[in-house]
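Issue 218. Parser rejects a valid record. Input:
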Amino acid sequence: MRVARAAFPDGSLPMRVRDHLAEVFDDSLFTDAFPGRGAPAQSPGLLALVTVLQFAENLTDRQAADALRDRLSWKYALGTELTAIGFDFTALSKFRARLVGHGLERVVFDRLVEHCRVTGLIGAGGKQRSDSTHVISAVRDLNRLELAGESVRAALEALALTAPSWLTGAVPVTEWEVRYAARIDSWKLPSSQGKRDRLAEVYGQDAHLLLHALHAPGTPGWLREIEPVRLLRQIFLQTYYVHTDTPGREVVRKREAGVDGVPPGHLRLASPYDADARWSAKADELFWCGYKVHLTETCHAPAKAEAEAERGLRLVTDVHTTLATVPDVKATTPIQQSLAARELSPGEHYLDSGYPSADLVAQAADRGITMVTPLLADHSPQARAAEGFDKSAFRIDWAARQVRCPEGATSRGWYPVTQHGRDAIVIDFARADCRPCPSNTKCTASGRGTRMLTLRPRELHERTAAARAEQATESWRSKYALRAGIEGTINQALDITGIRRARYRGLPKTTLQHAFSATAINVVRLDAHWTQTTPDPRTSRLTRLAHQLAP
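Output the parser choked on:
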């Protein structure tokens, strides 16, 4: 400690983490993951602190283990002697595996957030904002042909390691070695489409033969439980179609989407090495294989923490990782429930248009949360074309259960229904009123020539209409501008922790990565709060001056 203080009179981030947050990294957090008997293990609290510092500097496991040996500030933070040699870098991988195996991916993040809540730095009732970004998986992208061949190769590699004698008697090892010794890569595959189609058939026939052998009587059942073997079976079913020809032989052919059908994106495997990675797209501008992460941060503190808010302290309060195919709207409720469970429910929750629905806005309001977010506009053909009569042009008499159209006709039917698990009301008008109407072509394109409306229950309908009307005001737009700040947090996570790319394979380990990334971001921000650090030096002087002059 004396040497570290002499070398760093003003301290450093690792040193201040020990001085302010020593109680956060306590071994008792990890009791469930470590047995009471057996050989002594490295202190889990120490390993957790090393992992946070590792993510704060975006280091590899080897670099983190080396930093513990040769960096004075890290020795201070971990309370080791100057001559301590630390531990082997593989201890970090084993520690992460133990956390994932016991469902403790978020334990360090939750503990730090709870510490900040107890000390009054954050709390319930303030303003928070959320946004998501895509995460690229730790496996290479494969097209359908590469996936078909690589899945066979992965299963063969696993079986050659665990059951070499069985594999020798089940498949022609010498012949297949030529085909599957090296990884399947498009650069090494035939260039002509005909030859590639033939190779796809060969991969399918090999997979079919191997799976038949694995499910044959007398084959040990545990072989079918090996993960690459299980994934081979799923990929085979998703990629190939097996049918019987006239002589009664089984024929394997590649699935065609328009003929045989293919599984939906949220079920379709993208790699034999990561069962959770999925292909997804965002509009026409982004296409990736991996995951999605949602970050939530404070943007205005509750009353007891206003002083910290005035000094610019913004802390990440939740991190939520999903498959790439899960839409943002599915993450809204889990995020708010997670915040509520830790007594951090916001008074106002700022989100982009991908997160809300009329039902979610109403449910959040019942829990005391105001969702400041643009509801999607009316997407009827009339509204999209900006001509004709959209829903807002019709007058609804809820008491009489009737709707009057702009031309004065009254609806014929009022039918409460359930659509996609939600309550709705279907309204239709009589043919005698619609067909001779002079505005018929502006009102409907239905072959029946009549207009139909689908409404939500009265409370939701009126809330939605009021929200859309408010969104058109300048005051609402000015208020909603606060949401844009979350983009800076995502950028910080990308720059500091490398959150864009998954370090590990599988959703549980990727969730752990994001939890430690969020913890590292909070540590960096707390350090700036403790030291009253000036704005990022990468910000231009002109920008800083403009911020000072801003009202």
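Fixed in the parser; the record now loads. The chain is about 45% helix and 15% strand.
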